[in-house]
Design brief:
With about 190 residues, the chain is mostly helical. It is about 65% helix and about 0% strand. It binds adenosine-5'-diphosphate (ADP) and nickel (II) ion. The site of adenosine-5'-diphosphate (ADP) has 15 residues, from helix 9 and helix 10.
Length: about 190
């Protein structure tokens, strides 16, 4: 299985090395490393955690449009049907958009990967990713409102509230620290803005 996990990393590297909205290979690797860290002490299948974390953003409709099935293609080639189902179920239901649609993850493996992905939207890296995503999608940095599509508005609409959505205790602690940092960043941002 270790070889397959290595192949999954290479597959993601090959497919999203030029992705510039914060969902690149390095994001996948951070989510993978954080998921393994969060999984310590839990009775979970680390192969499921690893594969879901590494492959989770390959087919995100926000990035590659609908009908992309790269992750499934990879899994079909390398793992059993049972594994394919478990990993795809996590990937299909872990996003914030899925959450807003009322979808919930049933497995602990999924909840851990979801926490790791959400944590990467927070802190210094979360700030960088928010601006990268905004710029790539044609949104302003800030437009004197927190109710529009600007990057700063996105902090208030989503990022600063992610702590309560964390499934694991450790992720909640990390989220709180990172959100504290973001609030300090916003304080400085508005000081300069004025
Ligand atoms: P998920 O990880 O649940 O799929 P997203 O892909 O929506 O969530 O978010 C991933 C990253 O993209 C986050 O770091 C987030 O800040 C950024 N992002 C998503 N939507 C926006 C937006 N409207 N404006 C700014 N950044 C966004
Ligand atoms: Ni992600």
């Amino acid at each position: 299985m270790e070889t397959i996990i290595e192949k999954a990393k290479q597959f993601v590297k090959a497919n999203c090395s030029t992705e510039s909205s914060g969902h690149d290979y390095h994001h996948a690797m951070r989510v993978y490393n954080m998921a393994l860290y969060l999984a310590v002490g839990y009775d979970v299948d680390l192969n499921i955690v690893s594969l879901a974390a590494i492959l989770h953003d390959l087919d995100d409709p926000k990035i590659v449009g609908d009908n992309s099935q790269l992750a499934l293609g990879f899994l079909k080639e390398h793992v059993s049907l049972d594994y394919q189902k478990q990993v795809i179920d996590i990937i299909n239901n872990m996003s914030y958009t899925s959450y807003l649609q009322g979808k919930r993850l049933s497995s602990l493996e999924g909840k851990i990967v979801q926490d790791a992905d959400r944590l990467d939207a927070l802190g210094a890296i979360g700030i960088a990713r928010c601006f990268a995503f905004s710029g790539k999608n044609g949104h302003l940095i800030y437009d004197n409102s927190i109710d529009d599509k600007s990057a700063i508005a996105h902090f208030y609409q989503k990022l600063l509230n992610l702590d309560v959505l964390m499934n694991t205790t450790e992720a909640k602690i990390i989220a709180n620290n990172r959100i504290e940092f973001m609030k300090n960043y916003l304080e400085q941002f508005f000081k300069e803005w004025r």
